[in-house]
Amino acid sequence: MSKVLSNLRYSAEHEWIDDASPAKVGISQVAADALGDVVYVDLPQVGATVTAGEACGEVESTKSVSDLYAPVSGTVVEVNQEAVDNPAILNEDPYGAGWLFTVEVSEEGPLLSAQDYASANGGDVE
């Protein structure tokens, strides 16, 4: 069963966000497991504005291409170059080294608690 971290909040589209400022964004292990081997990541540019619930990039695996949705609105502060250079890190460590970008949050989208996300997606809260 996929791991869901209790200290994060989640979007219905399987992105996670922490409570730091700027906030770190990534994809959940549920999403990484469903995608299979991630081979390419397209992330928003530093300085770009993202809007909660709207596509802001792509994650491509050996199975499919999936849109990456912003869990919040705000300005992108940093992009994880390691995830771009080595997309497999999203499968290996989606909550750690596999984070995608940080954002200065101006408005939150509809976010789920870890418990609600795990209940809806069959994950184990840790």
TrEMBL record:
Coiled-coil boundaries: none
One Pfam family hit: GCV_H
Note on cofactor: Binds 1 lipoyl cofactor covalently.
Residue numbers of N6-lipoyllysine PTMs: K63
Keyword annotations: Lipoyl
Cofactor section: (R)-lipoate
UniProt key word Aminoacyl-tRNA synthetase: no
Signal peptide: none
Domain Lipoyl-binding: 22-104
InterPro entries, sorted: 2-oxoA_DH_lipoyl-BS, Biotin_lipoyl, GCV_H, GCV_H/Fam206, GCV_H_sub, Single_hybrid_motif
Subunit organization: The glycine cleavage system is composed of four proteins: P, T, L and H.
Family stated for the protein in its record: Belongs to the GcvH family.
Biological role: The glycine cleavage system catalyzes the degradation of glycine. The H protein shuttles the methylamine group of glycine from the P protein to the T protein.
Protein's name in the database: Glycine cleavage system H protein
Designated gene of the protein: gcvH
